[in-house]
């Protein structure tokens, strides 16, 4: 490494420290082409793997290579000290802002690379997500019922490589959910059906927690998604990054939400200790799965340059996913019939 740069850590190395960037810039690499830059003052770098390991017990290695410019002022933060500091409101907010920035920048890399993929690779990624969702729903049903015959078929699919691939693609776009305590009841507001909660292209000065009802997400006047899961956090990226809203939120029916303004974050952290920590954990997970997805898509792009070999390889992968989906569907069909398990029918219908 040139003397003009400071290597903080490399991909696949043990995550022992986070880094306080007092001033300067850090370049984060996924490959020679896929890289992005974090710059500014008093920013926490390298938190994702520490959060995943210390708070979620994942045991992962570094997912990126981080290199600082030679004139940067940087201080090491040992892993245990970093985790302890997450109980401090200003520290956890700082950490969350950097994580949100990393998600935004890795999303841009993903969008660029996904646009470059040919149709078959895009089909492969959609199959992976479909498979992951089906197995996850089966897992949810098993946790409720603990039926041994469900456990047998579930074990086969949970341990598959295809499930892990689908997990990475799905969780990189997963939303945050959180439970607002009674201490935040004064922040709740009700919106009648058809009312606008926030508008596209306006300043994101608030984020929301859905308490009840259903929200339509509109882009350019078209509904692109609905949000109905209690505890869903909406608008956290715009609030943390001072970005404009990317969508309009409209109440599909009577909606109750908790409204949190940026100026209130520190106060709320003190009233509900785990509020921002939960958001930081979810942001770390999204950044982690973005990194996995970038590496997977990057490999697909490299394979595409191998002409006919690529087509054959992609076709084989698609066939394997189709086989996994068919195996799951046939197994559930059989169990549905033999065990009279009507609760399996919605999962089968989606396959």
Explain this structure:
The protein has 351 residues and is of the alpha+beta class. It folds into 3 domains: 5-85, Jelly Rolls (Sandwich); 118-174 and 282-350, no CATH class; 182-271, Jelly Rolls. The chain is 49% helix and 22% strand. It contains 11 helices and 14 strands. It has helices spanning 48-54, 79-85, 89-116, 119-145, 148-158, 161-171, 236-241, 265-271, 275-304, 308-338, 345-350; strands at 5-9, 17-29, 35-40, 43-45, 65-69, 73-78, 188-191, 196-198, 206-212, 215-219, 222-227, 233-234, 248-251, 255-261. Strands 1, 2, 3, 4, 5 and 6 form a 6-stranded antiparallel beta sheet that branches. A 4-stranded antiparallel beta sheet has the order 7-14-9-12. Strands 8-13-10-11 form a 4-stranded antiparallel beta sheet, with no helix packed on it. A hairpin with a 5-residue loop joins β2 and β3 (35-40). α1 (48-54) crosses α9 (275-304), α4 runs antiparallel to α5 (148-158) and α4 runs parallel beside α10. The protein is globular. The mean pLDDT is 86.
């Amino acid at each position: 490494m040139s003397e003009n740069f400071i290597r903080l850590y490399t991909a696949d190395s043990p995550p022992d420290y986070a880094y306080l960037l007092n001033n300067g810039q850090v370049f984060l690499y996924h490959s020679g082409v896929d890289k992005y830059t974090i710059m500014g003052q008093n920013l926490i770098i390298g938190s994702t793997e520490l959060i995943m390991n210390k708070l979620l017990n994942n045991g992962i290695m570094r997912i990126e290579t981080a290199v600082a410019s030679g004139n940067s002022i940087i201080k090491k933060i040992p892993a245990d000290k970093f985790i302890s500091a997450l109980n401090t409101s200003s520290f956890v907010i700082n950490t969350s802002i950097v994580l949100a920035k990393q998600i935004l920048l890795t999303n841009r890399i993903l969008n660029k690379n996904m646009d470059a993929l040919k149709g078959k690779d895009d089909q492969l990624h959609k199959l992976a997500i479909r498979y992951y969702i089906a197995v996850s729903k089966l897992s949810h049903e098993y946790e409720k019922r603990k039926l041994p015959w469900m456990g047998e078929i579930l074990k086969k699919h949970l341990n598959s490589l295809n499930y892990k691939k689908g997990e990475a693609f799905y969780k990189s776009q997963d939303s945050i959910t959180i439970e607002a305590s009674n201490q935040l009841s004064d922040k709740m507001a009700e919106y009648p059906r058809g009312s606008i909660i926030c508008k596209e292209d306006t300043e994101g000065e608030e984020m929301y927690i859905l308490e009840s009802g259903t929200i339509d997400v509109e882009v350019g006047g078209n509904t692109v998604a609905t949000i109905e899961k209690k505890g869903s956090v909406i608008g956290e990226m715009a609030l943390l990054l001072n970005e404009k809203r990317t969508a309009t939120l409209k109440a599909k029916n009577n909606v109750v939400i908790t409204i949190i303004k940026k100026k209130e974050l520190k106060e709320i952290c003190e009233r509900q200790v785990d509020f921002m920590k939960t958001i930081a954990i979810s942001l770390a997970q999204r950044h982690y799965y973005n990194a996995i997805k970038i590496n997977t898509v990057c490999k697909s792009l490299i394979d595409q340059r191998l002409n006919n070999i690529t087509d054959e390889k992609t076709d084989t992968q698609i066939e394997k996913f189709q086989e996994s989906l068919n195996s799951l569907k046939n197994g559930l069909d059989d169990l549905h019939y033999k065990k009279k398990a009507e609760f399996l029918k919605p999962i089968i219908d989606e396959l």
